[in-house]
Amino acid sequence: MDAQQNISTGEKVQELEAEVERLRKENENLSLLFGVIHSNYNSLKSQLQLRQIQERGGLFACTESCSSQESNKRAKIEFPKEKTSQVLFRTDSTDTSLVVKDGYQWRKYGQKITKDNPSPRAYFRCFMSPRCPVKKKVQRCLLDRSLLVATYEGEHNHEPDARHVSPSLTNGLVMASTTSSYSPTVNPFAPNITLDLTLSGTNQEMKEPSQRFVEDSKNRIEDYVTSLRRIQTSLRP
DNA sequence: CGTCTTTGACCCGCGC
DNA sequence: GCGCGGGTCAAAGACG
Ligand SMILES: [Zn+2]
């Protein structure tokens, strides 16, 4: 009976290990896919910028001596000069009042309900340094209520005070990417992608929804890729 | 009593 | 011009 139990538990362990391995591979594939998407997005963006610059040729020399025929609202298009990055945090599914201690001191200055997301969005300003222009918005993820999406904008002009970073934060961090900045060179943030799809489930019932979530995000990513491809081909001369 | 959050008012850009 | 939606202000209140 002990032997039988051992066999069955051994089988179970093997099964679970296989499952974990499968999920790991899936994770790896998704990371790869995300990298491809990211690079595609970057090249597409640079193409778009190039095309916009070509469209209004020699904008720099023209800003003063702009003739009246160019007085349309053409020069409206501008690139976001400030870096904005999105970071996903994991938190308790119950509320932590949407505040995350991430090494900076934030003061909340607003909270609004948005149209497309039932959970409210909170607005914070960094006030560690008197002239720090950094702001961040925090909102719960639409699909997974236990994730917080923090959108940082601007750059700190001081050092982060890392003394009060909670250790649960470092392993709760899921992904840090999606920096958008106007720099013609390759941005150094690209290769650092750690996509982790919350396989923290302990029950077997957890398997199904997470699998569905994986498939769902896969479908989303594929849709995204096809739309990107379409845009790219339509942009190509 | 000082500090930080809450929360409705307010503002501003945009589409109709 | 008007309404709507997102972002910010500031009075009021909670909290130590
Ligand atoms: Zn700061």
UniProtKB/TrEMBL annotation:
InterPro entries in the record: WRKY_dom, WRKY_dom_sf, WRKY_plant
Compartments where found: Nucleus
Keywords for this protein: Coiled coil, DNA-binding, Nucleus, Transcription, Transcription regulation
Gene Ontology molecular function terms on file: DNA-binding transcription factor activity; sequence-specific DNA binding
GO cellular component: nucleus
Pfam families recorded: WRKY
PROSITE patterns: WRKY (PS50811)
Keyword Transcription regulation: yes
Keyword NADP: no
Domain WRKY as annotated: residue spans: 95-161
Coiled coil: 6-33
SMART domains, per the entry: WRKY
Name the UniProt record assigns to this protein: WRKY domain-containing protein
